[in-house]
Amino acid sequence: TEAGKTVYQIDWKSPDLVFFSNATETRGWQATLDRYRKRYQGEGKQMGTLDFPLLDFTGLGPEAVLARGRWRLRMPDGKELTGMTSVVFRKLREGWRIVHDHSTSQ
User: pLDDT confidence of 49, banded at 50, 70, 90?
Assistant: First the structure.
């Protein structure tokens, strides 16, 4: 999927969404989206293709799942970024949504 188009459609559109990336904590869906756009979109920046070559899921109950594994972002210029992630999904009224994302890069 194209990074940003799908990921932010499944994030919980709530001020209670939490995103940790390396040493940065971002709270809230809009702040998380703004951070992403500032970092990966705009003049001189390009979007990449995000995939998860290693990913496993652990049920935390009937309405919560932990996904953890490796993410990979392939840029149009051939550069590849990678790291680890752990994401908590909750089953909400609007469907399964990411409520917490902790990602690190190498």
Answer: confident
What is the Cα–Cα distance from 80 to 11, expressed in whole angstroms? Answer: 24
Range list of H helices, the chain: 7-10, 29-40
pLDDT, position 2: 41
Residue 56: closest CA among 85, 80, 32: 85
Entry pTM: 0.68
Token readout for 35 is 């951070």
Q: Within a 13 Å sphere around the CA of 83, how many CA atoms are in the beta-carbon half?
A: 14
Mean pLDDT computed over 46-74:
91
Q: Which of 105, 55, 53 is nearest to 84 (CA)?
A: 105
Top pLDDT among 25 and 41 is at 25
The CA-CA-CA angle for residues 33, 76, 99, to 5°, reads 25
Residue 11 near residue 17 (C-beta atoms within 8 A): yes
**DSSP secondary structure letter of residue 63:** T
Map residue 30 onto helix, strand or coil: helix
